[in-house]
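Possible regression after last week's pipeline update?

I re-ran a chain I had predicted before the update to compare outputs. Posting the input and the new output here so someone can diff against the archived version. Not blocking, just want to make sure nothing changed silently.
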Amino acid sequence: MAYKIEFIPEAGKDFEALDMSLKKDAGKKIDALSINPFLGKPLGNKLGIDLTGLYKLYFHKKRYRIVYRIMEERVEVLEIIGIGKRDKEEIYRLVAKRVKRLLKP
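New output (post-update):
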């Protein structure tokens, strides 16, 4: 069964901003997620930022991360929250801002 993958608008821009070789690597990982949404590792508290409920998946020699969440209990939809460099944990700070906005009532 293939699971549906959705990007929040900012994550779509993250993907489009990647160069072609990075897009290819990220695309392969995203395709793999559509088959097995549990490929990534669960995130918890990173640098004092609560990212519980999110998962990370490495690509491009572990220098980049795809951060996502599973949207439905039956695991039919995954939502990509961000794609970015691991460098100085910048992806986690970026995702934390986006998650706060997404979870606002």
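Follow-up from reviewer: compared with the archived run. Residues 4-103 form a domain with the YaeB-like fold fold (CATH 3.30.2310.20). Marking as no regression found.
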